[in-house]
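Kindly review this record before class:
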Amino acid sequence: MTARHEFLEHTSETVVRLTAPSLSALLAEAGRALGELELRGRSPRERGPWREVALRSPDRAALLVDWLNELLFIAERERWIPTEFAVLEAEEDHVRARVRGVRVAEPPTFVKAATMGGLRLTEVGGALLAEVTLDV
């Protein structure tokens, strides 16, 4: 199974539906989806060096939301949108990944935050399925 995502439109929100074979793949796919939204469909021109991103959360649902919010924080603070992900370690309560992205002229502001509202994260037939609401 290949990780994939799709966007479901909603008034002032976007829902990202994710499917992946593992938590690592789910987090990487969530990051790619967020990068796609932040770049608004533009293809990344050049990618800089890899950097490490690590964080802890109470459980894997919170980890997914916290992961996306950490990527948003980095993008806004550094004018740098993560687009490539190599998840080195992902457990129920933490993730450690190498991330590479592109510099942008202005801080991205399309996505304000990932939210816990409406969050779904389930395991079906060995795959993880998730829906995350993004405040736009």
